[in-house]
Structure formats: C-alpha cells, structure tokens
Amino acid sequence: MKKKILFIILFGFLKVGAQTPAFSTIDSLFEKGRYHLALNELESIKEPSFLSNYKTAIIYESIDNYAKTVLFLEKALVFKEDYKAKLKLAKAYQRLKKTYKSIKIYEDILAKDSLNLVLKYQLGKLYLVSKNGDKAIKVFKDLIKKDTLNAHYSYQLGLSYAIKNDRDRMINSFLDTYAKDSTHLNAILRLSTSFNKLKDKDSTRIFVDKGLQIDSNHVSLNKLKINLLYKDKKYVEALPFLFKLDTISKNDTYPISMLGRTFYNLDSLDKAKKYFNKLKFVERDNFKPYTFLGHIAMKEKNYKLAELNYRMATYIGKEKRDEEYFGMATMYYETKKPKQAIINFEKAYKENFNNYKALFQLAKLSDDFYKDKKIAYAHYKRYIERFESKDKVITDFVEKRLKEIKKEYFLRGETLE
To answer: What is the spatial distance between Cα 324 and Cα 307, in angstroms, rounded to a whole number?
Structure first.
C-alpha cells in the first residue's frame, strides 16, 4: 500500500515537472514571435491549468485579440485568484469597452488593498468613462488628500465636476491643476474654453496665450486665438494664425472659411473669393460660401452673380437663411424691383423672427410701395412690440410713422388699433 501511494506521489511530481520544459519551449517560441506554434503547444497540453490558460491569454493580448484574452484569463482565474491576472482581465475588458466589468474588478481589488493609489486613480478614470460623476469626485478628492501636489488628480476632479455640470467647481479644479503644474496643457485648454463660454475675454486670452507658448501648433488653442482676434476686428493680426492653421490642419475647413471671412472684412475681395470658391467645393453642403460670394458680388455691383449666389445659398441651406434672403432683398431693392424686395425681406424675417432689421425694411418698403398704409402700419406696430429698445434711431422713425399713418386714417374717418 505504501509503495502504491509513493508511486502516485512520484507520478504526480514527474507530471508537474514534465510541464516545466514544455512551458520553457512555449516561452522560447513566443519570444521569437512564433506565437502560432506557441499556441499549438499550449493547446496540446492535456490537462489545462492556471499557467496554461494565463500564458495563452498573454499571447492573445500581444496580438490585440482581447476577446480571446478575456476568455483565457477567466479560465485561468477559475484555478486560482491571481493579482496580475485580474488586472490584465480588467484592462482587457476596458479594451472591449466593457467598462462596468473593469470597474467591478478594480473595486474588488481595492476592497482588499485600499492604499493602492495607482489602482484607485484608474478606477476614478473608469467612473469618468461610465459618466458616474459622484463616484469619480469621491475617488479624486480622496486621492488629492493623499497627494496634494499631484496635478493630474485635480484635473480629473475637474472632469468629474464637468459631468455634473458644476461649472464653478470644475473651473476651480482646473485652476488648481494649473497652480500645481503651469505646463498642464489640457487644463489650460479647458480653462480657455470655459472662460470663452463665459464670455470672459481677458481670462480666455490669458490662458490661450499661455497654452500657445507651450504648444504653438495646438489646433484648438489657435482657433480660440483666431476667434478672439476676429471678434475684436483685429483681422490683420489674425492672418498669421490662420495661415499657420491652414498649414498644420490640412483636412480642416475652418481656416479656409475664416481666411475668406477675414479677407472679406479687410475688403480684399479677390482673396476672399479665392477661399470661398475653394470652400464651396470642399464642403458642398455648406451654404455660407455662396452667401459671402453673394455679398462680394453686391459690393462689385454684379447683381446677376449676386442673385445666383444668394439663390444657391437659400437652396442648399437648411438652417436659418435670413442673411441670404436679406441679401437677395437688398439686391432687388438696388435693381428697382420693390415687390420682389418686399417678398424677400418678409422671407428673411420669417426665417429668423429676431432679425429686427428685416422687419424694419419690410415695414419701410411696404410703406413706400403700397398705397394701403395699413400693411406698413401692422409691420411697424409689430416692430414696436418686439424691438422697441433695439435701435433708438429706428424706433424714433417707426413711432413717428405710426402716429402719421394713424392720423391720416383718422382724418378719413377710420380708427386704427
């Protein structure tokens, strides 16, 4: 009986020992890049173990086959709990965008090892990916307490507050990030964007300039810089940034559009035409190039070309086209076609009920064209109801005409409401 037990133990020892050279062969094949042969060797092992499944998973991980990586790591963990295998499984789940499964693994590990700051940081970022702002905030606040100088923790906390739409705390977190690391470009970009949304020009300019000192070719920061200069009508100053952006951002139509607009505002009409003609072929569903080409044709008194471009703009455009109809109406007015001008001023106002200039022009031209002043009176009255405080000069004129028309009809024996 003793001999029999000894034989079984010895057989088991030899069997385990026999696997060692097999795994050495597998490791050697894998190191040489012969992963197919290594996988064949692993498949030939008759009794799978933690090690055989783990090594199979590692090979699949190396060739980015994360579905198979997960499959074999899950099999490996059936044999025993292993820290490295669980971490690899969590990362493989991330690759497969199974965020919640990754979170569960990190939470399980941290329940046993709460001092692991690296894992806690990764868990916080996973909470961000899954849009769980409350849990992310809790994690990053705790990390900041443990390491007050780490700028990344403050930045991630800012992103967490962004998920919660907590604007003030978000900005404060990004400011804290910048205070800890003045070269943190992502925080600088976030601050630039946030202050820009708040229409705080000075703060936006400060952080845009700081960001461009770190990376002069940063596309988003260059766009913000250009927009600031454009709004301030500093068109000449905007040009170097636009030329640079046109060079570094080849597939972006923004610099083409802004170069056209900038040259248009500088009255360099030939250069503006060059960029708008280019833009209309690059972005065929963008109607604005035709709008500006219409404006340019109007400046050049080429009314047929202006009409063609405005018509193309109104045909292609799907959003508010009041600018285009207003341009068309102006063209008809200048070519002595008041009826068509009235029709298009009305279209402009109907496209955008906040376009007070379109409503005024509709009223004024109706007043000039129609003998029946009730039509103009109705438009003037609507103007006062909606835009009385918009433009004092226009309002004074409208109020005067309302009184005059009302008096004229009163003398005829008719009272206007």
So the answer is: 10
